[in-house]
Request: fold
Amino acid sequence: MAVIDHITTNNSATYEIQDTVARTKANNLESTNYTDIGGGFADGNTFLVKTDDGMKKGYLNNFANWILDKLATKVYNQLATSNKTIIGALNELDSKKAVPGEIPEFFDNIDKINNTSIVIATNQSSGTLPKKIGGNRYVIITDALVNESGLIYAVQFAIGFGSSTIAIRNCNYTAAGNGKYSEWRYI
Reply:
């Protein structure tokens, strides 16, 4: 029988087993001819967990409840929502979906709009607003890709209320994500 002193995970990371008790138990698990459970998990299934008090038996339904509790209560300050829990942030984002046929008002930075969208920007919005089309509300149509480094590519059209002028600006493709919008051009 082979002695297990390392474990390799699916993503090829290898971990050395330092604990001789854990090494013995891992060897015992490996030497026993268990069948694969596949996708047939049930709430009553058990598994082994190493705790500070030694090896303990855990139940799958308790583990699932623990995960759900973490999703509902653990605070992640990196989230860009007012609710900093995973479930709360998802609910917040879901509640802000545009109703079909309605265009949402946008009070943020128009230079940072990512993906494809149509929004109503107001004079309370920030970023480089098109000043020469008049009014204080604009329909902004955007197709852009922004990553952590910045702007990769973009095009924006702006139509002002009470004006027959259309503004357009773009950013040529840059893989580095350091692109900049051109000045607004007016039609």
